[in-house]
Specification:
InterPro entries: Nucleotide-bd_a/b_plait_sf (IPR012677), RBD_domain_sf (IPR035979), RRM_dom (IPR000504). The chain is an alpha+beta fold. Helices cover 41% and strands 18% of the residues. The C terminus is likely disordered.
């Protein structure tokens, strides 16, 4: 019996071919890790502290707003009313920082309130802006809406509001412009007429009041003022 022996070349080994073509294991692991998403970790204690900080900030903001001065507007005032009468009437609501009486009806308030004689001869609508110490006092002042203020023989029903747009003076102006717009253009669309009336409020002419003459007038030459009787 004859045995034939064949030498096997290592280069022809199929096992070796598979190993040379295979991707290294380390590269496979690296590529798979790149595709993996990192899980997000939340710290309950840190999240709770953040929520507490936000809650405290909101409370501080609300508390500070309650401490800030607040304004209310008072309309439908008597013609002979003054700042002292308004301050005395609203003193029950809380501390009042200031009271300013303003005029509507085409008057410019750059020179102060008009004279009583002018008020008696012309139709002047007055309203007041009251500055109160905080929101609590302002809310108490709003409760006086609809109450009556009597000055001498004249008694009127007050309109107290947060917005000057709710004053009867403003509503009256808008209504006048609304009627004029409808009469001029013949439109029946109330919405368009109201928008035009609101825009026309900015074009309302004003009446400038002349100030009283100075008891001691002074002249001016080259920027230097001097009493007139000296020359």
């Amino acid at each position: 019996m004859v045995y034939h022996c064949h030498s096997i070349n290592s280069d022809d080994s199929p096992t070796h071919n598979v190993e040379t073509k295979s991707i290294p294991k380390s590269k496979k692991v690296t590529s798979s890790r790149k595709n993996d998403t990192k899980p997000t970790r939340t710290n309950p204690a840190r999240a709770q502290k953040k929520n507490q900080r936000v809650s405290h900030a909101i409370k501080r903001h609300v508390k500070q707003r309650r401490r800030d001065p607040m304004h209310v507007f008072v309309g439908n005032l008597p013609k002979t009313v003054d700042e002292d009468s308004i301050e005395e009437y609203f003193s029950r609501c809380g501390e009042i920082l200031s009271v300013e009486i303003r005029c509507s009806g085409g008057l410019a308030m750059t020179t102060g309130r008009p004279d009583p004689a002018y008020i008696a001869q012309h139709s002047v609508r007055q309203y007041a802006m009251i500055t109160l110490i905080d929101a609590s006092a302002a809310n108490k002042a709003l409760n006086l809406n609809g109450s009556r203020l009597q000055i001498g023989d004249e008694s009127t029903e007050l309109v107290v509001t947060r917005s000057p747009a709710d004053l009867p003076e403003v509503i009256e102006k808008v209504q006048q412009r609304l009627e004029a717009y409808r009469a001029r253009n013949g439109f029946t669309d109330a919405r368009r007429a109201r928008q035009s009336a609101m825009r026309a409020l900015d074009l309302e002419p004003t009446i400038l009041l002349e100030t009283r003459g100075d008891k001691h007038p002074r002249g001016k030459i080259f920027g230097f003022s001097f009493p007139l009787p000296l020359f």
